[in-house]
Design brief:
single chain, two-stranded antiparallel ribbon
C-alpha cells in the first residue's frame, strides 16, 4: 500500500457505462449478419481468384501450384498444433481423488455436468481439460469447417484458477467459457473451410503473379496474412460485447453473487501479480546483466498455484533475484558460454514506460469499499457498487485497465461487476444476487 501522500485521484472520471443485455444481443446478431455477408463475399472472391489462376495454367509447374494452394489453406489451421501440443489433461483422465484446492477430480466432473445441464447443453460434446499453468485464466476454443459439422469444442482450465475459486465460482467460469463455445461463438470461427479456401486461392494467385521471382516463396505468407485479417478481424468493442454476454451466461448458471466474487478474486490476483511483474522489470532496469528470461523464470517459480500472498511471494522473488546476481558474479565456464550465446534484446525504454504506467495505476486512490471486503463478506457488494458509481475518480483495483479499458480485449473488473449487478436489478428489482437470475 502506498503512503497517503502518494495516492492521487484521477484527473477525469473514468467511463463506467455498461450495455444492456438486449443491446448486446442485438449487436451480436447484427455482427453475425455482417459476418455472413462477408463469408459470401469471401466465397465469391475465392471463385474469382481460382478463375484467374486457371487462366495462367502453365506459368509454373503443377506441383508448385499445388504447394502454393495447400500451404496457404493449411496455414489457417496452424493454431491446432499449439492446441494439441499443450500439456493438457482431459478431465475424464483425472483421478477421482486428485485434489486441486477445494476441488477433486470427481467434483470437477460433477461441476461441468451440472453447468451443462443448467445451460441445456447435456447432449453437446465439449472437451474440458486442465493445464498446469499458474496464470489465473481459462480458455475456450470453438472451430469448425462449416456450420452444422462437428468441430473442436474445448474448454481449458488453468490449475491456478481451481486453487483460487470455490465450487460455485468455478461453475461461473465454466459457464462463461461454455458461453464462448456454444452460445456466443461467432459464425466466422465455424467457417474455417471457407477461410482456408480463400487463403489457398489468394496464395496461389500471388504466387502466379510473382512466378520466376524470389517473392514467389513468400506468397503463402502474404496470402495468409491477408486471409487471417479478413477472416478474424474484430475491434476491442466487439470482443468486450461477447465478454459481457459470456459473463451473463456464467451468472445465469450460479447467480450474480458467485459470479461477481469470482471476477473480483481474479481481479485481485491480477493486481497482486502485476505488482510482482513490475518488480521484475525494475530489477532488470537496476541490473542489466541478468537476462530478462531468467528474471521472468524467477517470477514464474515464485508464484504458487492459486492465490498469491504478496509479502511472501515478493520475498521469494527478491531472494531469487539476489541468487541470480550472486550466480552472475560467480559464473562458471558453462554459464559464461550460455550467457554469451543467449540473446537479451530487452527494450529498456519500453520497460521504463511500462513501469511508470504500472506505478501510476497503483497510485490511484481506491473506492471506499475495498474489493477484498466483498470477497470476505458478499453483503458488502451493494455498498461496493455504490462506491464505484459514486467515485468515478477512484478505482477498485490498481491496474491500468481499471482506468481505461477501451482498448482492452476484456472489460475491467469494475465494469464487469457493474454490468452483472445492473442486469440483476433490471431482471429482479430488489432481489439482485439472490440466486440465479
Amino acid at each position: 500500500m502506498l503512503p497517503p501522500s502518494e495516492v492521487r485521484l484521477l484527473p477525469k472520471p473514468r467511463c463506467l457505462t455498461t450495455p444492456r443485455r438486449q443491446e448486446l444481443l442485438g449487436a451480436f446478431r447484427a455482427s453475425e449478419r455482417r459476418a455472413l455477408v462477408w463469408i459470401a463475399a469471401e466465397l465469391g472472391a475465392t471463385g474469382l481468384l481460382l478463375a484467374f489462376a486457371w487462366g495462367r495454367v502453365g506459368a509454373v509447374p503443377a506441383w508448385q501450384s499445388l504447394v502454393l494452394f495447400v500451404a496457404g489453406a493449411l496455414g489457417m489451421f496452424d493454431f491446432l498444433f499449439t492446441h494439441w501440443a499443450g500439456r493438457r489433461t482431459g478431465l475424464e483422465d483425472v483421478a477421482d481423488q486428485a485434489i486441486y484446492g477445494v476441488h477433486s477430480g470427481a467434483s470437477l466432473r460433477r461441476a461441468v455436468a451440472d453447468v451443462c445441464r443448467r445451460m441445456g447443453l447435456e447432449g453437446s460434446r465439449c472437451q474440458v481439460s486442465l493445464v498446469p499453468d499458474k496464470a489465473i485464466n481459462a480458455q475456450a476454443l470453438r472451430v469448425g469447417l462449416l456450420p452444422g459439422l462437428h468441430g473442436i469444442h474445448a474448454v481449458t482450465l488453468n490449475r491456478s484458477i481451481l486453487h483460487l475459486l470455490n465450487e460455485e465460482e468455478l461453475k461461473y467460469v465454466i459457464g462463461h467459457e461454455l458461453g464462448h463455445v456454444f452460445v456466443h461463438a461467432p459464425i466466422s470461427s465455424r467457417c474455417l473451410a471457407v477461410h482456408a479456401l480463400f487463403a489457398g486461392a489468394l496464395s496461389l494467385a500471388i504466387g502466379l503473379v510473382a512466378a520466376g521471382s524470389d517473392w514467389m516463396i513468400a506468397a503463402p505468407l502474404c496470402g495468409l496474412a491477408v486471409a487471417r485479417w479478413l477472416a478474424f478481424r474484430t475491434t476491442a468493442a466487439q470482443v468486450q460485447q461477447i465478454e459481457f454476454l459470456c459473463d451473463d451466461c456464467g451468472a445465469s448458471v450460479v447467480g450474480v453473487i458467485p459470479a461477481i466474487t469470482a471476477i473480483i478474486k481474479m481481479g485481485l490476483e491480477e493486481e497482486a501479480r502485476s505488482l510482482l511483474v513490475c518488480r521484475v522489470m525494475e530489477a532488470k532496469l537496476a541490473d542489466d546483466d541478468i537476462p530478462m528470461a531468467q528474471l521472468l523464470a524467477a517470477y514464474e517459480s515464485s508464484l504458487p498455484f492459486g492465490s498469491v500472498v504478496p509479502a511472501q511471494t515478493h520475498d521469494r522473488l527478491v531472494e531469487q533475484v539476489r541468487q541470480l546476481r550472486r550466480d552472475g558474479r560467480q559464473m562458471s565456464l558453462g554459464g559464461f558460454f550460455r550467457s554469451l550465446f543467449s540473446e537479451d534484446d530487452t527494450d529498456r525504454d519500453g520497460l521504463r514506460t511500462a513501469v511508470l504506467a504500472m506505478r501510476r495505476a497503483a497510485s490511484v486512490a481506491r473506492v471506499p469499499v475495498a474489493a477484498a471486503e466483498v470477497v470476505a463478506d458478499p453483503r458488502h457488494l451493494a455498498a461496493c457498487v455504490a462506491a464505484i458509481e459514486d467515485h468515478p475518480d477512484r478505482v477498485l483495483l490498481g491496474m491500468e485497465e481499471e482506468i481505461d479499458d477501451s482498448r482492452q480485449g476484456h472489460p475491467c473488473t469494475s465494469r464487469r461487476l457493474l454490468f452483472l449487478w445492473r442486469e440483476a436489478l433490471r431482471s429482479s428489482p430488489g432481489q439482485a444476487g439472490l440466486g440465479p437470475v
